[in-house]
Amino acid sequence: MSTDDGVEQVPVGPPDGGSQPTTDVDTAADGGADHDTRFFGQPWALAHVFGVEMWERFSFYGMQGILLIYMYYSVAEGGLGMPEAIATGIVGAYGGAVYLSTILGAWLADRLFGSERVLFVSAIVIMCGHIALALVPGYWGLGIGLVLVAVGSGGLKANATSVVGTLYKEDDPRRDAGFSLFYLGINLGAFFGPLLTGLLQSTWGFHWGFALAAVGMGLGLLQYSFGRKQLPAASRAVPNPLPPARYGPVIGIAIAAVVVVVILVLVGVIRADNLAGVVIIATIVAAIAYFAVILSSRRITSVERSRVFGFIPLFIVSVGFWSLYQQQFTVLTVYSDKRLDRTIFGWEMPVSWVQSINPVFIIVLSGVFAALWTKLGTRQPSTPIKFGLGSIIMGAAFLLFLPWANGAPNSTPLLAIIGILLVFTIAELLISPVGLSVTTKLAPKVFHTQMIALFFLSVALGTALAGWLAQFYDPENEVPYFTFLGFVAIGLGAALLFAVKPVLALMKGVR
């Protein structure tokens, strides 16, 4: 996350023109947000977005912590008895669909309702999804629940980030530290979610764990309901309103898309065993289309167009990073269930608790990284360097599995996984909050939220790839898997480091 250093930056709020909606720059100045330091040195309004995102992550990771084992555990164990390969593919596809649906959430915000309103409704949809998982038995509950959580999470993700961007003037040096604090809220939820849902799942059953996820999202929704009116007007502005004459065609396209998906499912084109591949293809098509639409738009300037081109290498490296990182929820879950020694003083901790290790490191290190970037100021590494190093470190983390590769059941010590996940975390802090921050800087005015959705599309593609790659994981011969993916990530990061100068030239002053 590079801090603003006085060079020209892209404003991150709604554009000027038309009805002259207030930009985040104006709102921050008029509302005194640049002097408001009540929330750990940040504007107090950040606390409201921090809170709803924290509880959303509690519910999201709490549910995801037990989702894979719910699918492949036997019916006698309370699960669905699904083959592991299909279950990991569905988890990857679902995770990809979460980020893919940020397109819908961003479009609704930029063209119809504004980010804050879409965020609020999305939180309600998420809660309904968790309720379905908790109360509706079998595959129907799984399907309904995952669809609602995916759509709702996509709407909340891009718009929560967008709302945070409206809290700061473009030259506010607290911006990157604010995003790191926001990221801390995400990981507080991600830490407690798997711990508590895993505890309920192992004690009372899977559906109790899903119910707790619903309660968590309900608490977040309640908290946000009280604080949302204190957010700046820019968070509710519609940057690029859709003309009323186009409402009909858009509704028609939406209905047709749903019908096509239903037909493809009914005729067997979309199946559980190829779901990850379907999401990968859909995400690639969506990303190419999005880049084409933004780059060909007549409403962006030449500087903005160049910055979007500069975003493409970051997008590619981000895909590679997330395709490894998100295997925490596919390969690493299976690995933790079968290969990891989870016994602590005679007690075996739940599988899902492994997913709370990474958030602990995030909670500890996010403040360290935020302070480091603030202290370094203009001397800190540029965003492409951070991305390149993040990819290299992620690749190194996969190589760290090799000393324990092909071992016996329960042969990997817990301390080894803790160390590997520490390396995961360092890589994540060089890419994820940095990516959120730089995307708001590179975004053209009229595509602000949709550019954030583009960043999440890289996460979508990487997450779906994480599910698809899991089919090649062989517990009997792990060395090729970890070695190949590790060196691919290292090579990708090295390539970006070699291309830093041309990428920065395209980014036109944004570092």
Automatic annotation (TrEMBL):
InterPro entries: Dipep/tripep_permease (IPR005279), MFS_dom (IPR020846), MFS_trans_sf (IPR036259), MFS_Transporters (IPR050171), POT_fam (IPR000109), PTR2_symporter_CS (IPR018456). Residues 45-511 form the Major facilitator superfamily (MFS) profile domain. It comes from the Bacteria. It is found in: Cell membrane; Membrane. Its main location: membrane. It is a multi-pass membrane protein. SUPFAM superfamilies: MFS general substrate transporter. Gene3D superfamilies: MFS general substrate transporter like domains. Residues 1-28 are annotated as: Disordered. The chain crosses the membrane at residues 58-73, 85-109, 118-140, 146-168, 180-200, 206-226, 247-270, 276-296, 308-325, 353-373, 385-405, 411-431, 452-473, 479-500. Keywords: Cell membrane, Membrane, Transmembrane, Transmembrane helix, Transport. It holds the Pfam family PTR2. Belongs to the major facilitator superfamily. Proton-dependent oligopeptide transporter (POT/PTR) (TC 2.A.17) family. This is Peptide MFS transporter. It comes from Microbacterium terregens.
